[in-house]
Amino acid sequence: MENIDWSNLGFGYMKADYNIRCKFSNGAWGELEVHDNEYLSMHISATALHYGQESFEGLKAFRGKDGKIRIFRMKDNALRMQDSSVGTLMAKVPVEMFEEAVLKAVKLNEHYVPPYESGASLYIRPVLFGSGPQIGVRPATEYMFIVFVLPVGPYFKGGFQTTPFVIMREYDRSAPLGMGKYKVGGNYAASLVAGQRSHELGYSNIFYLDAREKKYIDECGAANFFGIKSNTYVTPKSSSILPSITNKSLMVLAEEMGLTVERRDVPVEELSTFDEAGACGTAAVISPIERIDDYDKNISYIFSKDGKPGPICEKLYHKLQAIQYGNEPDTHGWVTIVE
Ligand code: PLP
Ligand code: COI
């Protein structure tokens, strides 16, 4: 392990020492295996390669001031991966197996968990895919589940700093009755062109609108949306967005802070009424939004004039991180301490 500059990490791949694997064949899961190789050998006709039969998860482990490592809401990620299996007809990873694999991956790569002061964390990436061959469009009979980890810094440039986002109606990410609510690779492939275009134009990312009416905010390619106004936390309710575990946590914390929480359709024009807005997710944490430009209508919705995050974003961010790093008691049972 080379010297890692923990405080300047971005969100990029880095090899850790070990990954955990488990194979499903003949209708049953095998034993967890520990590998030090970051490559795998697979069938050229695996359903993951041809028909996108795959799902993944993202969660994080944090090293506290007390030196302990805490994993945030692991069971919720396990359950969401099971949901993705329902959406893609893959074998379900049992919750206990998911948790055991995550714990093992973190423990075996413990020295990749960044130090407390760095503000970085260990990103945990479970992935499940059809590894068995098919050439007709049918689910595989063999699956592979892998958990690997890597230390990461902020996902959007600047971390907890405001950045601009954009709305463009010429791109959809997912359909109302489609796959947007599952964490499957195809959704991310579908977001690459729009994502690149938004970067070229100087934005952090694009906010998709609902594909049917193009009236309501859905989410961006890797995070949910929330807006804040008159002591209210507003976030989209939509069948085509991923149920974010971070967003779910922020809704609880917002309510505990005395805010009203509204999960409902959020019309684009309502953006003009928000005092603050943010993108939230495991990788994004809270990425406060400077402004959202409606590219097609040439309107800018501005949430920060001085480049600083608003007070509620700030409060939510610190509260969430305090729980994740163990500076405040975990009253919701969200944290698993790695023994
Ligand atoms: N939306 C999308 C499309 C994502 O990829 C993610 C990241 O996981 C999120 C939202 C945020 O979800 P979570 O908070 O569970 O990480
Ligand atoms: C996450 O926040 O964990 C994600 O999966 C988002 C992105 C890196 C795809």
Using only CA atoms, what is the Rg?
20 Å
The CATH topology assignment of the largest domain is D-amino Acid Aminotransferase, Chain A, domain 2
Query: In CATH terms, what is the architecture of the largest domain?
Result: Alpha-Beta Barrel
Question: What global shape is seen?
Answer: globular
The averaged pLDDT comes out at 97
Secondary structure tally: strands: 18
What percentage of amino acids are in beta strands? 25-35%
Output the CATH homologous superfamily of the largest domain: D-amino Acid Aminotransferase, subunit A, domain 2
- Unreliable segments (pLDDT under 50, ≥5 consecutive)? none
- Following the backbone from N to C, one meets helices and strands in this order, namely EEEHEEEHHEEEHHEEEEHEEEEHE
Domain unit count? 2
Structural class: alpha+beta
List the helices and strands and how they pair.
Blueprint: E1 19-25, E2 28-29, E3 33-35, H1 47-51, E4 54-56, E5 59-63, E6 69-72, H2 74-88, H3 95-108, E7 121-130, E8 143-152, E9 163-167, H4 185-189, H5 192-200, E10 206-209, E11 217-220, E12 223-229, E13 232-236, H6 245-256, E14 260-264, E15 276-281, E16 285-294, E17 299-302, H7 311-324, E18 335-338
Parallel strand pairs: 9-10, 9-16, 13-14
Antiparallel strand pairs: 1-2, 1-3, 1-8, 4-7, 5-6, 5-7, 6-18, 7-8, 10-11, 11-12, 12-13, 12-15, 15-16, 16-17
Helix pairs in contact: 2-3
What does this protein structure show overall?
This protein is of the alpha+beta class. The protein has helices at 47-51, 74-88, 95-108, 185-189, 192-200, 245-256, 311-324, and strands at 19-25, 28-29, 33-35, 54-56, 59-63, 69-72, 121-130, 143-152, 163-167, 206-209, 217-220, 223-229, 232-236, 260-264, 276-281, 285-294, 299-302, 335-338. The chain has two domains: 6-152, Aminotransferase class 4, branched-chain amino acid transferase, N-terminal domain (D-amino Acid Aminotransferase, Chain A, domain 1, 2-Layer Sandwich); 163-324, D-amino Acid Aminotransferase, subunit A, domain 2 (D-amino Acid Aminotransferase, Chain A, domain 2), CATH 3.20.10. A hairpin with a 5-residue loop joins strand 5 (59-63) and strand 6. Helix 2 crosses helix 3. The radius of gyration is 20 Å and the shape is globular. The structure holds pyridoxal-5'-phosphate and 2-OXO-4-methylpentanoic acid. 2-OXO-4-methylpentanoic acid binds next to loops.
